[in-house]
Design a protein that fits this description.
The complex is a heterodimer of chains A (87) and B (432). Chain A is built from 1 helix and 6 strands; from the N terminus they run E-E-E-H-E-E-E. Chain A is mainly beta and 87 residues long. Chain A has a single domain, classed as Folate-binding fold (2-Layer Sandwich), CATH 3.30.2270.10. In chain B, helix 2 runs parallel beside helix 7 (199-212) and helix 3 packs across helix 10. The chains are: A mainly beta (87), B alpha/beta (432). The interface between A and B is medium-sized, with 24 and 23 residues.
């Protein structure tokens, strides 16, 4: 069972959370070209290693939060860089 | 012939002895010592005409069809582990062509047609069993999609129709088709040409045939870098410190494909998700149809050995981890029992995970890239194995002629910038 550490609720089963995806900034919809918008929608970094991402604690505090996760072994650390609970 | 019976000769074609009833009798009498190795070990050359990264069904099929259809035999297939160790050996071995878009149906139907003749073409028993494939509908909207798919399929000449619960019960007597379940079964899309196959045999058959044409298969050879000079591929570098040059490099690495494309600076709209599957202990044959339920996120088939193979949808977050989870088996067991309550005493033998390179539209990315000489055959998500033969055939044509053939014209990388997606989610997600 994989645990994910919510900054508000602590370590919880990953099934309580919803994966939102890589943390990245949205282009301004008023000025973005269709190409820029499609890049934002479809293209993500897909590294085998650490990535900053957003999760939503749907079955807990219902807040969005940022976390860093290693995609190879699912180890986590808080966005500040301190090690959190692993699986 | 060198030690261990391995040939270490130059990469020229050899005469491969044919597998036949006669060879079986002859070698059976000789205690099996007369069997040749199916493919040879080679020392990598310094240069090749084509380097294919990834020794799975896609990479090996591309090598096979390049040699067979286009006479290009100076090819190296580089595999970081052993052949068929990635998605080719981890899928649930289901074949079908009842997709949703005309582009998808045409493409996967060509694959099923190639699979039908593959055993004869490769002289290798791939154990294709066309036992029929049904996708259950548990609500009105999925029944509507089934009708839509059936009509698209019929227009493309694919045998596919919507059947009612009474007909489902006839095909699968152990299925609970009553209306008292949580998700009552309203009907199914039935696709008689679908079925299952021995996935390892497909990999080995293509490897043996490619080897017989003179293709070099290098296992345990990981690519760690790709050299590009003035926007043109010149070769690759491997983990053991070699540099192998080639004017053409093909990326057939599925779940790891963005790592390879990053080496040449080609962005791809691909994210890697694990997909878990499981198999039970073997029991007597009772299920001769592949059963799929999108609502229950599961698909079930019984192998020739009698084991039940279960698959699911991809895990809910991106990862390169192939570790199994208890969440998965718990959910899976519950869903399977909703369909067939009689299986409650079955025991799981093992579970595993494979990596899926998911694209936004659930269609693959095939063909040329902005870097000259760098070809991609990726974005295979959860449907790569069934497309192996046609992908090999089409990629071989694409490499030989320098432009994608008509059958994969819709699957180019440029479609994401141009907004021409080929939406297959309705038929590809948990549709195995």
């Amino acid at each position: 069972m994989m645990l994910l550490t919510c900054p508000n609720c602590g370590a919880r089963n990953v099934s309580e959370f919803r994966y939102v995806g890589e943390a990245k900034s949205r282009p301004d919809p008023e000025t973005a070209t269709p190409e820029q918008w499609r890049r934002y929608l479809y293209f993500h970094r897909n590294p085998a290693g650490w990535i900053s991402e957003t999760w939503y604690h749907g079955s807990g505090c219902r807040r969005y939060f940022g976390i860093e996760r290693n995609t190879v072994d699912n180890a986590q650390r808080s966005a500040a860089g301190t090690a959190g609970a692993t699986s | 012939m060198s030690r261990n019976g391995q040939h270490d000769g130059p990469g020229r074609a050899r005469r491969t002895s044919r597998y036949s009833a006669w060879s079986l009798v002859k070698n059976g009498l000789g205690a099996g010592s007369g069997w040749e190795r199916a493919f040879r070990h080679h020392t990598p050359k310094e240069t090749y005409d084509v380097i294919i990264i990834g020794g799975g069904v896609h990479g090996l099929a591309t090598a096979h069809y390049l040699a067979e259809n286009h006479g290009i035999t100076d090819i190296a297939v580089l595999e970081k582990s052993y052949i068929g160790s990635g998605g080719s050996g981890r899928n649930t071995a289901i074949l079908r062509s009842n997709y949703l878009t005309p582009e998808g149906v045409r493409f996967y139907d060509r694959s099923v047609k190639l699979y039908e003749h593959l055993a004869a073409d490769l002289n290798f028993n791939v154990m294709f069993s066309q036992r029929g494939h049904m996708t259950l509908a548990h609500n009105d909207s999925s029944l509507r999609t089934m009708h839509w798919r059936a009509e698209v399929n019929k227009l493309q000449g694919v045998d596919s129709s919507v059947i009612d619960p009474a007909e489902i019960k006839k095909l699968v007597p152990y299925m609970d088709v009553s209306s008292s379940t949580r998700y009552p079964i309203l009907g199914a899309l039935y696709h008689p040409p679908g079925g299952i196959i021995r996935h390892d045999a497909v990999v080995w058959g293509y490897a043996r045939s490619a080897d017989a044409h003179g293709v070099h298969i290098h296992q345990k050879t990981e690519v760690v870098g790709i050299d590009v000079a003035s926007n043109r591929v010149t070769g690759v570098r491997t983990a053991d410190g070699r540099r192998i040059s080639a004017p053409v490099v093909v990326n057939c690495t599925a779940g790891w494909s963005t790592l390879i494309s990053d080496m040449v600076g080609v962005d791809m709209p691909v994210q890697t998700f694990p997909l878990q599957a499981a198999v039970t202990e073997p029991v007597k044959p009772f299920l001769d149809t592949v059963v799929v339920s999108g609502t229950l996120h599961t698909y079930v088939s019984q192998t020739d050995r009698g084991e039940l193979v279960f698959g699911a949808s991809v895990d809910p977050f991106a990862s390169y981890s192939t570790r199994g989870s208890l969440d998965f088996v718990e959910g899976l067991a519950g869903h399977v029992l909703e369909l067939m309550p009689g299986l409650s005493k079955m025991r799981l033998l093992r579970q595993w995970a494979g990596l899926c390179d998911m694209t936004p539209d659930y269609s693959p990315i095939m063909g040329l890239t902005p870097v000259e000489g760098f070809f991609v055959d990726v974005g295979w998500g959860t449907y790569g194995f069934k497309a192996g033969p046609v992908s090999g055939e089409a990629m071989a044509a694409c490499i030989a002629h320098g432009k994608p053939p008509e059958i994969i014209a819709a699957f180019g990388l440029e479609r994401f910038d141009e907004g021409r997606l080929v939406g297959e989610k309705g038929a590809a997600a948990v549709g195995h």
